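S.,

Sequence below, as promised.
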Amino acid sequence: MRVLDISRRISPRSVVLPGDAPLSVEPICDVAPGCPCRITALTGWTTHFLTHVDAPRHFFSDGATLDAIELDRFVCEALVVELAEGDDFVDVRHVQNLPDLENTAVLFRSRNSRISTDAPFHEGHVYLSGPAAKLLIRKHANLVGVDYLSVDRFGDEEFPAHRALLGNNVLVLEGLNLSSVRAGRYRLSALPLKIQDADGSPVRAVLV
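The prediction came back faster than expected:
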């Protein structure tokens, strides 16, 4: 068994969505006279930074929150689909030949995975088209993951992929790093923090 870490590293230099505050990871105290241990303060974070999962409540006022979703939704079979270098978005052609995806996570590996976590936000990131999202719903996907901070095209205020997937109870996993992963079948674990009424949560995502 080999465990592949597909999460992005958290540091004060890590990329955040435009408009979000930078992350802060600062020690409050360290091992020294007067302080028996090291304690670190984490500030500036939201429930949607770096590698994280979205719940339906993220876009729908009556949507399920993470604490209302069964944990087996976050630990499931996974299919990694690799896009070509020149593909700017996930389209229907990337999805139409996939098998039925019931109880399966579909993770799309693109050139996004080569973008450094410390690099400035990349507005031209590869995204998921609305028609592809709707086809993934019809194929009964449990979860859809992408290797950048949003499934939607930057600047698209309609949020077609988010609204289609979350509106049909398909979980969304964003901010993955699939650079060391080949296309194929795996077992995914991406457990969220146990936050009351959470619309999203950071996760430590791994493939087995």
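The chain is about 10% helix and 25% strand.

Coffee later?
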